[in-house]
Design goal:
Number of helices: 14
Radius of gyration: 24 Å
Helix content: 25-40%
CATH class of the largest domain: Mainly Alpha
Shape: globular
CATH topology of the largest domain: Endonuclease III, domain 1
Number of strands: 8
Strand order of the largest sheet: 5-1-7-6
Structural class: alpha+beta
Length: about 350
C-alpha cells in the first residue's frame, strides 16, 4: 500500500529539482524554503539560490542582506537568516559537515524539530517522520485521529506515533521516499479543504475515508480572525539615481529590509506602532494606490512622489532615512517598495 503511494510519488514528482542529485546541504536549503512557501515558487528560486551559494562555506560568509536578496520572492525572511546561522554553526563547529543525529541537529542555530527530522529522513534516509502540515493531516486521516488543529497537534500526533510504534512498522520502506510521498499526497489529493480519495493509494485502510467525512480530520477549531484596516502613505523621493529609504529594525515587520518612508494615515488598531503616524493632511495627492495585507492588517497604500524640499516641509523626521542606490535587483527592498519603484510612473 505505501509502496504504491511511493511509486505514484516517484512517477509524478521525481523531477522536482531538490530531488535530483540530492545532498544534505541541498536538502537543508529546500526544506527551509518549502516551509510556508508553495512548490511552484520554490522551483523558481531553488536553482538560482544554489548557484549563488553552492556550499555551506560560501553561504556562511555571506551577509544577511546578501542572503535575503537571494531569498527575494520566497517571503518569511527570518528563514533565510536562520539558514545562514545554521551554515555558520556547521562550518565553525562541525568541520562544515551537517550532523547526522537528531539531538546535535536540534542544537544547531536556526534548526528546529521539523528541519532536523527532514534532514535525517529525507537527507539521510533514517527512520524519522518530518511532520509538516501535509503529513500531519494525512496521518490524522489515515489513522482516524480527531486531533484539534493548532500548536498541540504535532506534539499529540508524535506521542501517538511513538506509543503505537508506527515508524517501527515501516521497516523495508525507504524513509526518504515515504516522507516525500506523504507530503505529495497531502499537497495534491489530501488537502486541508479538498480531498480526492478515489485517487489516493491509502484509501482502503484510511479510517477517515471509511467515515465518509475525511475533512473532519483533524478537527478545525473555529476562530474569528480580526482584521484591521490600515491606510499607509508611502513617499517616493528619488535624486541622482538614489532613493530615500529606511531600514526596518529588529522586532518590526520585514526586519533588515529597505522600505520607502512610510507613515500611518489611519487605522482601526490604535496600538499599532510599526510606523509613525502622520497627523497632518497633505495637499499632495498620490498617483498610485494599491492594496496589500500583512499579518492581521488589510492595507490601503497611497503613494506620493516628493522632492527633498517638500519632504522636509511636510514630513516629521522621526525616523532615520538615507539615500541608497536605486537598484531593484541588488538591494533588499520590501515587496511593497519594489511594487512602487517598478511602477512605470516612477
Amino acid at each position: 500500500m505505501f509502496e504504491n503511494l511511493i511509486k505514484w510519488s516517484k512517477k509524478e514528482y521525481s523531477h522536482l529539482p531538490w530531488r535530483i542529485n540530492r545532498t544534505l546541504y541541498t536538502t537543508l536549503v529546500s526544506e527551509i524554503m518549502l516551509q510556508q512557501t508553495t512548490v511552484p515558487t520554490v522551483i523558481n528560486k531553488f536553482g538560482p539560490f544554489l548557484k549563488k551559494y553552492p556550499t555551506l562555506k560560501k553561504l556562511s560568509k555571506a551577509t544577511d542582506e546578501e542572503v535575503c536578496i537571494a531569498w527575494k520572492g520566497l517571503g518569511y525572511y527570518s528563514r533565510a537568516r536562520n539558514l545562514k546561522k545554521a551554515a555558520i554553526d556547521i562550518v565553525a563547529n562541525h568541520q562544515g559537515k551537517i550532523p547526522t543525529d537528531y539531538l546535535t541537529l536540534k542544537k544547531l542555530t536556526g534548526i528546529g524539530e521539523y528541519t532536523a527530522n527532514a534532514l535525517l529522513s529525507i537527507g539521510h534516509k533514517k527512520l524519522h517522520l518530518a511532520l509538516d502540515a501535509n503529513i500531519e493531516r494525512v496521518l490524522c486521516r489515515y489513522l482516524g485521529l480527531k486531533l484539534n488543529k493548532g500548536p498541540q497537534l504535532k506534539k499529540e500526533l508524535s506521542a501517538h506515533l511513538e506509543k503505537t510504534r508506527f515508524t517501527a512498522k515501516l521497516n523495508g520502506i525507504c524513509p526518504r521516499e515515504l516522507n516525500e510521498a506523504l507530503m505529495d499526497l497531502g499537497r495534491v489529493y489530501c488537502q486541508a479543504n479538498k480531498v480526492e480519495c478515489s485517487k489516493c493509494h491509502l484509501r482502503t485502510k484510511c479510517k477517515a475515508y471509511k467515515t465518509k467525512d475525511p475533512l473532519a480530520y483533524p478537527v478545525a477549531i473555529k476562530k474569528e480572525k480580526k482584521f484591521y484596516n490600515l491606510e499607509l502613505l508611502r513617499v517616493v523621493l528619488i535624486e541622482r539615481g538614489k532613493v530615500l529609504v529606511h531600514k526596518r529594525k529588529k522586532g518590526q515587520w520585514l526586519t533588515d529590509q529597505w522600505e520607502l518612508p512610510t507613515f500611518i494615515l489611519s487605522t482601526d488598531d490604535e496600538k499599532l506602532a510599526q510606523y509613525p503616524r502622520l497627523n497632518k493632511k497633505l495637499k499632495l495627492i498620490g498617483k498610485l494606490e494599491f492594496k496589500s495585507t500583512i499579518t492581521k492588517y488589510k492595507i490601503r497604500n497611497r503613494v506620493v512622489k516628493m522632492t527633498l524640499k517638500e519632504f522636509r516641509k511636510e514630513i516629521p523626521l522621526s525616523l532615520k532615512f538615507e539615500f541608497i542606490t536605486l537598484d531593484t535587483t541588488g538591494q533588499n527592498f520590501t515587496t511593497a517598495t519594489l511594487k512602487v519603484l517598478n511602477h512605470e510612473i516612477f
